[in-house]
Design brief:
Largest sheet: 4 strands, mixed
Distance between the termini: 50 Å
Strand content: 5-15%
Mean pLDDT: 87
Number of strands: 7
Strand order of the largest sheet: 4-7-6-5
Structural class: alpha+beta
Low-confidence stretches: none
């Protein structure tokens, strides 16, 4: 698959070189570091042409707090910050319920700093061993709740402290994002608890209509279930 350099992507998008670098840093534009340069897949540059930020991204720490809250645990933050996180969940609920809403857009912007996303391709016969590795916390399409489960794809989260060893042990070499990638590793410290919100965010990262629609379905089901955080937890009256 062909790729572009940062200057080529900037010219293609009609933006500055610095803007492209910022998009890479924000996780908006997937890229692979090769020496001192970046390689950006043509398909990702084309997707970025239509990108419009829908929300200011949360920091890595606040993303972790939101994911902890989504999993039913009260994060150790003050009531004002908890109120902010509650507003984000309500915004997602509104986007999921609106006829023309697209909560995947909100997820892509809001939680894009939650982890570093690495995509790669391995032999299909290697997938079962990767999925069964206890260092991998399965999520995204590898979680049956995604509605897109496939035994031919491995997706999940690995703690940053063991990420390099994990990749090396399975001969996983991250490459510019590709539709053919069958391994997607999210590197994060600490590891986030897997919840429907995290699964939906993982699906949204694929930036495909099918995945966006499924992310919405996951959220709609979650908002109407007992898994969704209770009002007391959201209001900070529970610990």
């Amino acid at each position: 698959m062909s790729s572009m350099s940062v200057p080529e992507a900037a010219n293609h998008l009609g933006v500055s070189r610095q803007r492209v670098l910022q998009m890479i840093a924000d996780g908006v534009l997937p890229a692979q570091r090769i020496g001192r340069s970046w390689a950006i897949a043509d398909v990702d540059v084309d997707v970025a042409r239509h990108y419009r930020p829908s929300s200011r991204p949360l920091s890595r720490a606040m993303s972790a707090h939101l994911l902890r809250l989504a999993a039913g645990s009260r994060p150790r933050i003050d009531d004002q910050e908890l109120w902010r996180l509650r507003q984000y969940l309500l915004r997602l609920a509104d986007a999921a319920s609106a006829p023309d809403g697209n909560p995947a857009d909100v997820l892509r912007s809001l939680l894009r700093r939650r982890a570093d996303r690495l995509a790669s391709s391995v032999a299909p016969s290697d997938i079962p061993e990767i999925v069964s590795d206890e260092r991998l916390v399965v999520s995204g399409v590898s979680d049956p709740r995604s509605g897109m489960y496939s035994s031919h794809v491995a997706e999940g989260y690995v703690d940053g402290d063991v990420a390099q060893a994990f990749l090396a042990s399975h001969f996983i070499v991250p490459a510019p994002s590709s539709p053919r990638a069958n391994v997607v590793i999210h590197v994060s410290s600490p590891l986030p608890p897997v919840s429907p919100l995290l699964i939906a965010a993982d699906l949204a990262d694929y930036r495909g209509d099918r995945e966006d629609n499924q992310a919405r379905e996951v959220l709609v089901t979650w908002f109407g279930s007992s898994e969704f955080p209770s009002p007391k937890l959201l209001d900070g009256r529970s610990s």
